[in-house]
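step=encode ok
step=design start
structure_in=
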């Protein structure tokens, strides 16, 4: 189950392209990456700070790990859809709840709304915690300056992308990027 040969080389090339320290190819879509990222970052029965508009696989990880969850509510937009996560709300939660072990944000949302990941990463890292970003709908961000900066460029520690949603890839093609030692 450890990549070698052409698979390992392809993962290394993907890491270079997307700007990650290490990249893992995933099957079963971003679900397996989300489960892995949360499981790696938060100890069993630990506490996760998470955006409320997260994918159901994040809720599955919470259940499997027995996690306590503190929710960040996304701002409402003028169109009535979920908006971005406020960096101020992240800072407040981390100030109020020292038991938090990781922060999990969905950006961009299914509707394409991106949060200020750079500022959120700076806040989270000031507490020496990992930031996990579900960037399932933003795998294309790295490929053009007209898009928002990718979560990897903004300093997120673990980033999950679904290539099949915004790039030409087969169904359920996803990546898990590791971007720090945290």
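sequence_out=
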């Amino acid at each position: 189950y450890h990549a070698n040969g052409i698979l390992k080389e392809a993962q290394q090339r993907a890491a270079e392209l997307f700007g990650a320290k290490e990249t893992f190819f995933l099957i079963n879509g971003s679900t397996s990456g989300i489960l892995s990222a949360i499981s790696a970052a938060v100890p069993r029965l630990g506490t996760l700070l998470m955006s409320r508009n997260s994918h159901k696989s994040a809720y599955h990880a919470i259940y499997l790990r027995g996690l306590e969850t503190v929710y960040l509510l996304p701002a409402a937009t003028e169109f009535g859809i979920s908006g971005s996560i406020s960096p101020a709300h992240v800072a407040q939660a981390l100030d109020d709840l020292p038991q938090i072990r990781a922060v999990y944000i969905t950006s961009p949302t299914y509707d394409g709304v991106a949060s200020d990941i750079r500022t959120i990463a700076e806040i989270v890292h000031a507490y020496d915690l990992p930031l996990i970003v579900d960037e399932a709908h933003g795998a294309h961000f790295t490929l053009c300056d007209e898009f928002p900066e990718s979560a990897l460029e903004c300093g997120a520690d673990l980033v999950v992308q679904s290539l099949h949603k915004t790039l030409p890839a087969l169904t359920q093609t996803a990546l898990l990027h590791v971007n720090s030692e945290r």
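step=design ok
step=annotate ok -> The longest strand covers residues 100-106.
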